[in-house]
Amino acid sequence: MSAALQVTAFGLALLSTLFLLLATCTDCWMVNSDDSLEVSHKCRGLWRECVTNMQDGVRTCDQYDSILAEHPVKIVVTRALMITADLLAGLALATLILGLDCIMFLKEDPCVKLKMCYGAGVILGTGSILGLIGSLWYAVDVYVERAMLVSHNIFLGVHYDFGWSCWLGMAGSTGCFVASVLLTCCLY
């Protein structure tokens, strides 16, 4: 039972970590939600902003000036939280691989392997909370920005909704959290 639970937690952690990495690297955290009048599809991400022409499919992207340049707080905070979550999830995966019962590393000392799985669960839980805070921070900021424009009857021609990268970050963080709960609470 313990080995099956470990492998399940590892599979979920691996998939969720990939989701977190994809969310951090991709550039569709915000998408324009008014496609009825638009001839282009706009995406804003943590690293650049891209526009895709709907007629011919040509995509152009504008990199943000510099990583160290002054950016909106939501981008800086989300970048920092997502990169930290990615690093912690990667560290947790490496620790979890060494702690799995099916791996021959430290096979003679099952207590140490169990502690490694528990430690991986704690690290994964910390990373998942940071990733979830980063994704939700960005999503709430997008919602507040949109609500402020609507409440002031300001129409700029385009308004943004959550993009698939934002949803991917939330899903990856939630999956990492579930894997963390499996490793820390259910393994014993």
Task: Describe what this molecule looks like in 3D.
By secondary structure, the chain is an alpha+beta fold. Helix content is 62%, strand content 12%. Strands 4-3-2-1-5 form a 5-stranded antiparallel beta sheet. Strand 1 and strand 2 form a beta hairpin. The termini are close together. The model has no long low-confidence stretch (mean pLDDT 84).
Q: What key attributes describe this structure?
A:
4 helices; five-stranded antiparallel sheet; single chain; 188 residues; Claudin; alpha+beta; Butyryl-CoA Dehydrogenase, subunit A, domain 3; 5 strands
Find the CATH topology. Butyryl-CoA Dehydrogenase, subunit A, domain 3
Level-2 CATH architecture? Up-down Bundle
Count structural domains: 1
Q: Termini, distance in Å?
A: 10 Å
Query: How many helices in DSSP terms?
Result: 4
Helix content: 55-70%
Low-confidence stretches: none
Strand order of the largest sheet: 4-3-2-1-5
Average the pLDDT over all residues and give the rounded result.
Answer: 84
Assembly type of the shown chains?
A: single chain
Computed structural class: alpha+beta
CATH class: Mainly Alpha
How would the global form be characterised? elongated
Radius of gyration over all CA atoms, rounded = 20 Å
Largest sheet: 5 strands, antiparallel
Q: Give the topology string: H per helix, E per strand.
A: HEEEEHHEH
Overall number of strands: 5
InterPro entries: Claudin, Claudin16, Claudin_CS, PMP22/EMP/MP20/Claudin
Main location: other
Transmembrane segments: 87-106, 118-140, 162-187
Signal peptide: 1-28
